[in-house]
């Protein structure tokens, strides 16, 4: 069963609140982890459920979420997803079974035996009904009206027969193995993974995908970072290599000449975990849809201007994996700030040089499930410009005096001093500085006396 889009899921909090109603269809949110813009939104559609069975459909949709949320690597990213159920009644329950002469009057006109394959369960357009409006057209009309923010779509068919399919819309029956079907199809749809079956598929033209390849040059294999130097290429499909990443022959419906990363994987046989390469690809697919930083304050196009002892606090809200924390690091002018690893960072005028400064935060997912990320999709950043209006006056005590210095960028500033800060003593020019190495420098022989200094523009 091939696909180009699928579903995945997670479960944290169940919300049973009807959000929108369209004609005879109702939208219910069944999982909430944040605004739709900051989450991957999974929408389930009912097919072959009569009006009296729609309550069961909501439970079935939750069951799919419950089953899939435990599937690694998605178990660590449960908080990244929202779940929704669109309930729409069919006149009859089940799906068409052309081989048995059984035809049901259902909302999306689902049918087994699509394209001559007994277990291939689809909705139109297909070889049995080429009218887009009878199936997919209805689904997208409901989505656009009730949940236009959707990311992944699944049609749950109220039929116990084993079957399903992938594509822009994932379709699965309510067979006891349906969770495995959904997990497999999710690999196709969500991350563009290929089938790792060696069995012939008449007419199928194999092509390169993240987990299938014709490449046998060790250095050029796309999952080379996972292959140990001691692992032979191609890799014998024998017990000593049963758990390692290598180059195993048999994939993309080809017995010879096409290779997969590991002996077993969800993309080869249902109810197996995803192999390491597929798991890595799935995690990277998450971050192509949503970014590690959900929001920031203030806006990055807002420049802060600070003088004297003023400060500004910058912050980001990050996504929240369930089993670890994302790494946060703040930088000023491209230098990492020691200990600045929280979601907020306060910038003081006295800690930055006079003029324009860049403050940047980087957030990274360091999950070891991902070993290679050339596109850097697991990293995110925000930058702000902070203008320091007053130069920083630096000093060094010497025997019998003090040396003060400040940047020559601070044109027009005058060094002043006085013996105490009381209002009866006025500030007076301290003297004329010298210029060296882009710094103004002034030496004041004050002995053991106390004196206060300031730069005034």
What does this structure look like?
- With 457 residues, this protein is mainly β.
- It has four domains: 17-191, 3-Layer(aba) Sandwich (Collagenase (Catalytic Domain)), CATH 3.40.390; 218-287, no CATH class; 293-388, Immunoglobulins (Immunoglobulin-like, Sandwich), CATH 2.60.40.10; 394-456.
- It contains four helices and 24 strands.
- It has helices spanning 54-69, 136-146, 178-191, 276-287, and strands spanning 17-22, 25-31, 40-47, 81-87, 152-157, 164-165, 170-173, 248-251, 254-260, 293-297, 304-306, 311-318, 327-332, 335-336, 344-348, 355-364, 379-388, 394-398, 401-407, 414-418, 428-429, 434-436, 439-444, 452-456.
- The protein has a seven-stranded mixed beta sheet with strand order 1-2-4-3-5-7-6, with helices on both faces.
- A hairpin with a 4-residue loop joins strand 6 and strand 7.
- The relative contact order is 0.10.
- Mean pLDDT is 90; it is low at 1-21.
Task: Summarize this entry quickly.
The protein is mainly β.
Keywords, please?
Immunoglobulin-like; Collagenase (Catalytic Domain); 457 residues; seven-stranded mixed beta sheet; mainly beta; five-stranded mixed beta sheet
What is the mean pLDDT? 90
Q: How many strand elements?
A: 24
Gyration radius over CA: 32 Å
Q: Report the CATH superfamily of the largest domain.
A: Collagenase (Catalytic Domain)
Which percent range fits the helix content? 10-25%
Number of helices: 4
Q: Could you name the CATH topology of the largest domain?
A: Collagenase (Catalytic Domain)
Task: Please identify, by name, the CATH architecture of the largest domain.
Answer: 3-Layer(aba) Sandwich
* Highest-level CATH class of the largest domain: Alpha Beta
Strand order of the largest sheet: 1-2-4-3-5-7-6
The secondary structure category is: mainly beta
Taken as a percent bin, the fraction of beta residues is 25-35%
Query: What shape does the CA trace take?
Result: elongated
């Amino acid at each position: 069963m091939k696909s180009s889009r699928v579903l995945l899921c997670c479960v944290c909090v169940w919300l049973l609140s009807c959000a929108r109603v369209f004609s005879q269809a109702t939208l219910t949110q069944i999982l909430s982890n944040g605004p739709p813009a900051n989450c991957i939104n999974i929408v389930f559609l009912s097919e072959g459920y009569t009006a009296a069975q729609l309550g069961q459909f909501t439970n079935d949709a939750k069951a799919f979420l419950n089953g899939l949320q435990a599937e690694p690597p998605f178990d660590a990213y449960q908080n990244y997803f929202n779940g929704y159920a669109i309930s729409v009644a069919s006149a009859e329950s089940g799906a068409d079974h052309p081989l048995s002469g059984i035809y049901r009057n259902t909302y999306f006109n689902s049918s087994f035996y699509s394209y001559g394959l007994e277990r291939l369960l689809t909705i139109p357009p297909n070889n049995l009904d080429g009218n887009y409006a009878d199936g997919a057209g209805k689904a997208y009309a409901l989505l656009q009206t009730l949940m236009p923010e959707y990311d992944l779509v699944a049609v749950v068919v109220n039929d116990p027969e084993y079957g399903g399919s992938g594509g822009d819309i994932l379709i699965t029956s309510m067979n006891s193995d349906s969770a495995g079907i959904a997990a497999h199809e999710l690999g196709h749809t969500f991350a563009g993974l290929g089938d790792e079956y060696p069995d012939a598929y008449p007419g199928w033209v194999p092509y390169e995908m993240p987990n299938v390849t014709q490449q046998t040059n060790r250095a050029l294999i796309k999952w080379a970072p996972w292959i140990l130097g001691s692992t032979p290429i191609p890799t014998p499909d024998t017990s000593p290599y049963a758990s390692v990443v290598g180059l195993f022959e048999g994939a993309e419906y080809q017995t010879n000449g096409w290779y997969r990363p590991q002996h077993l994987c969800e993309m080869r046989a249902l109810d197996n975990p995803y192999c390491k390469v597929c798991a890595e690809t799935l995690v990277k697919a998450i971050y192509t849809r949503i970014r590690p930083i959900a929001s920031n304050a203030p806006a990055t196009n807002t420049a802060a201007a600070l003088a004297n002892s003023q400060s500004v606090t910058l912050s980001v809200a990050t996504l929240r994996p369930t089993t670890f924390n994302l790494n946060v690091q703040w930088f000023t002018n491209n230098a990492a700030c020691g200990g600045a690893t929280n979601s907020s960072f306060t910038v003081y005028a006295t800690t930055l040089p006079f003029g324009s400064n860049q403050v940047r935060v980087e957030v990274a997912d360091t999950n070891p499930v991902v070993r290679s990320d050339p596109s850097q999709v697991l990293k995110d950043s925000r930058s702000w410009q902070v203008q320091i209006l007053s130069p920083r006056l630096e000093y060094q005590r010497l025997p019998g005096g003090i040396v003060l210095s400040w940047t020559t960028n601070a044109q027009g500033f005058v060094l002043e001093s006085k013996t105490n800060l009381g209002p009866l003593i006025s500030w007076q020019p301290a003297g004329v500085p010298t210029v060296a190495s882009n710094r103004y420098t002034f030496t004041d022989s004050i002995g053991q006396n106390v004196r206060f200094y300031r730069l005034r523009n």
